[in-house]
Amino acid sequence: MIVRLFNALGGAFLAFLQYLGEVVLLAADTFRSIFTHKFRWKLFFNQIVEIGLLSQVVVVITGGFTGAVFSAQTFFQFNKLGMGSATGAVVSVAICRELGPVLTALMVAGRVGAAMSAEIGTMKVTEQIDALRALAVYPTDYLVVPRALAMMISMPLLVAECIAVGIAAGYFIAIFLLEINGTYYMANMVRWTRNRDIIMGLSKAFCFGILIVFISCHKGLTAREGAVGVGRATTEAVVNSSLAVLICNFFLTMLLNIIYPAGYQ
Amino acid sequence: MIAVHGLVKRIGTQDILRGVDLDVARGETLAIIGRSGGGKSVLLKHLVGLMKPNAGEIWIEGQNIIPMNERQLAMIRPKIGILFQGAALFDSMTVEENIAFPLREAGERDPKVLREKVHQMLEVMELQGEEKKMPVNLSGGMKKRVGLARAIVRRPSCILYDEPTSGLDPVVSDSINRLIRRLQQRFGVTSIAVTHDMKNAFHVADRVAYLHEGRVYFHGTPRELEKTNDAIIQDFLLGRSEEQRASGEKL
Ligand SMILES: Nc1ncnc2c1ncn2[C@@H]1O[C@H](COP(=O)(O)OP(=O)(O)OP(=O)(O)O)[C@@H](O)[C@H]1O
Ligand SMILES: [Mg+2]
User: What are the structural domains, with CATH classification, of chain B?
Assistant: First the structure.
């Protein structure tokens, strides 16, 4: 009984390690390929459009409404203490450091990660990947490299956009709806928000982009058994990359906080 | 040119290939026939390194491809064109882009040259005017012909066909058979064709291999195949099922 429990746990753990290993190998293979093989500009620009350009609406709405609601909630609490004008500082630091990168990453995982794994997975189960290989094209070069690079470039920009829109939305809510004094709001915000907060948000964005793209591409490349398999790969890609984003966010926060400590110093 | 020794492939608990030996000389056309599910498509995929066998060797132009990795295989693969049973067209590209793909990957950039070569292929395949269609909007036979065009557009020295004429009408079938013959005669292409179409096998092949229970059960010229009085091959050639044989004996 206990032996069987340990066997099951051990099996799951080994499977998890193997999965991690596969994703890491895919990433290593991709980075090697970026530096050693012919680069496909056309595919890269297609992916920039797909990932960066077409995610704008989602990111703007996410950033805007999050900034607005966060600003309102912070104000409701802080106002009781007579600290209403500190709202701006809290909103901007929180959006830069946490909300911007994490929410954008979750939205991108849902939108882009799902599309990647579904597209690559369909190619896999319909033998198109075999056809690529038979035509002497290495699938990593053709499918993963353009996506990975486009993601690494797009994610920081998307997060920057999300942060900007979030802060702006928070500001307008504070000024026009909550009637905080705009000058104080602004002064507090600028005083407490540092370059390092923005750098932290963008570094996180870069890391999350890498997580999403490799988890999703790996799920697509290992899809099997028809439409059901592709569906499963897509679901798992979104779930795994979202979880990976949330878990890594914690460790990144701890690590980056050593390099870029929070607060006014 | 192509030599296969003792190829064994097991997937899960199923023994698909149990020791296949084949030898195809340069410029020769070999037809592989055999029952559905007999492992013919699996064998073809091994020949371009898309699947790794459990045991055995595959020699292509004097190089054993089994220990090669994907990057090394990419050096060998341009010499070999393969037509997949399901055509395996890239469904995000038009017919034209599908056919031009191997040329683009080989470094051809000039749009005029590309267009000309694609048109030439479309003409051979009797697909003029279809170049802007997407693969999902093609009929089964048209997909097959586009797949064939993509496989041969780079003029490989060896071509593997997985059922080149299945799903085609008799007229187009005949023209594909002639094309295969012509490629062999004019360009000295080595071919391996998996087929269920006996007319195709007899027409096109210099030799025929009958794959049965994971081994090459018969290997010889089409004439020898016709003359053999082996019961299993007779059944296959005449299209006799077990049932028919049983009832035939009773009558
Ligand atoms: N990827 C795979 N995973 C598991 N089994 C497979 C796989 N590919 C093929 N098989 C099995 O191998 C056997 C041979 O398949 P294959 O496609 O080679 O047959 P075939 O001779 O080409 O048949 P047909 O003439 O109908 O095309 C079948 O039983 C099939 O189920
Ligand atoms: Mg087959």
Answer: 2-220 (3.40.50.300)
